[in-house]
Specification:
Number of helices: 10
Number of domains: 2
Structural class: alpha/beta
CATH class of the largest domain: Alpha Beta
Order of helices and strands: HEHEHEHEEHEHEHEHEHEHEEEE
Oligomer: single chain
CATH architecture of the largest domain: 3-Layer(aba) Sandwich
Distance between the termini: 7 Å
Strand order of the largest sheet: 2-1-3-4-5-13
Radius of gyration: 20 Å
């Protein structure tokens, strides 16, 4: 994506909001004192100097949930661009499957290599905490993006949008597409995915509002962020619930697999599908009438922002405390909110009218 598109997306962002995730402290390694809360100064980060220069040559490693996932390929590409602008050293490592503990060995290797920053999307909120504690004790800063750990195990979380905003837009879209009435299912990623579970809990709360009284959530299924598993889970949902009116899939792998199944089935045009996907994945399904609309933030901008946040932390400009600000290249200035959270901005809805305006 061009920097001009970054500017166009960034200019429309609302004021940065904060999302506070409440979780128990993870054990071992670097921990907070009794009087510390999320976002307070960590052992791996000293006092902040807002006038400090970004260091050249920073080794910033991206560790996504899984490599070769189209979403993370785009997101980490944004990180690579940012690290290049910062004259740093970029690398991407990670597992081929998105299981709870699959990232631990990669974190241990990065710690041994003495990297300056680890930027990771957690497959599980607690499974990698011990390894991250050791990395921070060794001097690395840790930024989570897309999916958080327990807040005690990282220095910053770069959130794609508020969880409330993501949940709300998905319920609004499915309600519009099924006429406000009928059975729906959710096709998620892995059962332990931090972000997915937060969104699902909030979607359930959203469905309790009076305007959604005629919508029934019948099942939450898990495709494990695997194309074939998600394809089969979609088939299973349609078989188990012949009156199913719609599916929400808050995962780019899941929504694309579900769309592929629906497009070749008798349910095309009868069962609505929405969720979170990339325009390039979903374009053909929007144009052939399988999908009416879906939503997502710009994943390339998410990775780009996470890289700049990591560089600011590693250079001592910020230490994760609420209210601190830093510059994120072409995206402009960002403010750290409560809980050590930085929010990229609100999601964008894609449909037939605008999907060709985006290329990611």
């Amino acid at each position: 994506m061009t920097r001009s598109k970054f500017r166009r997306l960034a200019s429309g962002l609302a004021a940065v909001l904060a999302l506070t995730l409440t979780a128990a402290a993870c054990g071992g390694g670097t921990t907070r004192g009794d009087d510390e809360g999320p976002g307070d100064t960590q052992d791996s980060v000293g006092e902040a100097d807002p006038n400090a220069e970004i260091q050249e040559g920073l080794h910033i490693s991206f560790l996504p949930k899984q490599i070769n996932n189209p979403y993370f390929t785009v997101a980490d590409g944004g990180g690579e661009q940012a690290v290049g602008e910062l004259a740093g050293e970029y690398e991407e490592v990670g597992p081929s499957e998105a299981s709870a503990s699959s990232q631990v060995s990669y974190i241990n290797t990065l710690t041994q290599q003495g990297v300056d920053a680890i930027v990771t999307s957690a497959n599980d909120p607690n499974a990698i905490c011990g390894a991250l504690d050791q990395a921070r004790s060794a001097g690395a800063v840790v930024v989570t993006y897309d999916s958080d750990t327990d807040p005690a195990c990282r220095d910053l979380f770069v959130n794609q949008a508020t969880a409330e905003g993501i949940a709300k837009i998905q319920i609004e879209l499915i309600s519009e597409q099924i006429g406000g009435s009928g059975q729906i299912a959710i096709l998620s990623a892995t059962p332990n995915a931090t972000n997915q579970n937060a969104w699902i809990d909030l979607m359930k709360q959203e469905l309790e509002k009076p305007e959604y009284a005629d919508i029934e959530l019948v099942e939450v299924a898990y495709g494990n962020d695997d194309d074939e598993d998600s394809f089969q889970e979609t088939q299973g949902l349609l078989s188990s619930y012949p009156d199913l009116a719609g599916i929400i899939s808050p995962t780019t792998v899941g929504i694309a697999a579900a769309a592929r199944y629906l497009s070749g089935s008798d349910s095309k045009g009868k069962v609505a599908l929405t969720g979170l996907g990339t325009p390039n994945q979903m374009r053909e399904f929007v144009k052939d009438g399988t999908v009416e609309s879906f939503a997502l933030w710009d994943p390339e901008a998410l990775g780009y922002l996470a890289a700049y946040a990591a560089a600011a932390l590693a250079s001592g400009q910020i230490n994760g405390e609420a209210g601190q600000t830093f510059e994120a290249g072409d995206l402009g200035e960002y403010t750290i909110g409560d809980g050590g959270v930085v929010v990229l901005g609100p999601p964008t809805v894609f449909d037939r009218d605008n999907i060709d305006d985006f290329d990611f």
